[in-house]
C-alpha cells in the first residue's frame, strides 16, 4: 500500500502503556531501533467496536505481538496498542496522519507540494485504513 503521513513521533526509551491514539486518522507505521531486549508492540487489531470498550476489558490473549525491529509495520493507532517492557536502548519512529489534515489552507498546500511533499487524500487514508485492518485478518 502506498502510505503518506503528516507526522513522526521519535521516542527514546519509552514503553507506552496500553492506549488508543486520539488525534490521528488511525493508519500508522512504526519501527524500532537500538540494542534492546523485549519492547515488542502488542496490538489489538479487532478493537474496532463503537463505542470503544474500556481498555481494561481487552484480553491480553486477543493481542497480536509484533517485533517491530526488522521492518516498518503498518497498524491502526486508533485500536489499542502498547509496548512491552524492555531493557537496553530502544528508539521508535511512529508515522501517523494528524486529524484535521484536510484543513490545511490552499496556499500552504501549494507551498508543500512545490517543496515535494506528498499529502494524504481522503481516498488514500481510506486505502491505508483498509490495509491496516486487512493485515491482521
Total number of beta strands: 9
Structural class: alpha+beta
Count of separate DSSP helical elements: 2
Give me the oligomer status.
single chain
Question: Which features characterize this protein?
Answer:
9 strands, alpha+beta, three-stranded antiparallel β-sheet, globular, single chain, 137 residues, 31% strand
Report on the structure:
The radius of gyration is 16 Å and the shape is globular. The strands form three sheets. A four-stranded antiparallel sheet has the order 1-9-2-6. The two termini are 16 Å apart. The longest helix has 13 residues. Helices cover 16% and strands 31% of the residues. The relative contact order is 0.32. The protein has 137 residues and is an alpha+beta fold. The chain has two helices and nine strands; from the N terminus they run βββββββββαα.
Chart the SSEs and their pairings.
Elements (H helix, E strand, L loop, with lengths): L6 E6 L11 E10 L2 E3 L2 E3 L20 E3 L6 E4 L4 E3 L2 E3 L2 E8 L7 H9 L7 H13 L3
Antiparallel strand pairs: 1-9, 2-6, 2-9, 3-8, 4-5, 4-7
Task: Summarize the structure in short.
The protein is of the alpha+beta class and 137 residues long.
Amino acid at each position: 500500500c502506498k502510505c503518506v503521513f503528516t507526522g513522526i513521533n521519535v521516542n527514546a526509551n519509552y514503553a507506552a502503556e496500553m492506549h488508543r491514539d486520539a488525534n490521528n486518522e488511525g493508519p500508522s507505521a512504526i519501527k524500532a531501533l537500538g540494542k534492546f531486549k523485549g519492547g515488542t508492540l502488542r496490538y489489538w487489531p479487532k478493537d474496532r467496536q463503537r463505542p470503544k470498550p474500556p481498555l481494561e476489558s481487552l484480553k491480553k490473549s486477543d493481542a497480536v505481538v509484533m517485533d517491530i525491529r526488522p521492518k516498518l509495520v503498518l497498524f491502526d493507532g486508533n485500536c489499542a496498542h502498547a509496548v512491552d517492557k524492555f531493557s537496553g536502548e530502544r528508539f521508535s519512529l511512529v508515522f501517523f496522519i494528524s486529524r484535521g489534515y484536510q484543513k490545511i489552507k490552499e496556499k500552504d498546500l501549494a507551498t508543500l507540494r512545490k517543496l515535494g511533499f506528498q499529502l494524504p487524500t481522503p481516498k488514500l487514508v481510506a486505502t491505508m485504513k483498509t490495509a491496516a485492518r486487512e493485515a491482521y485478518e
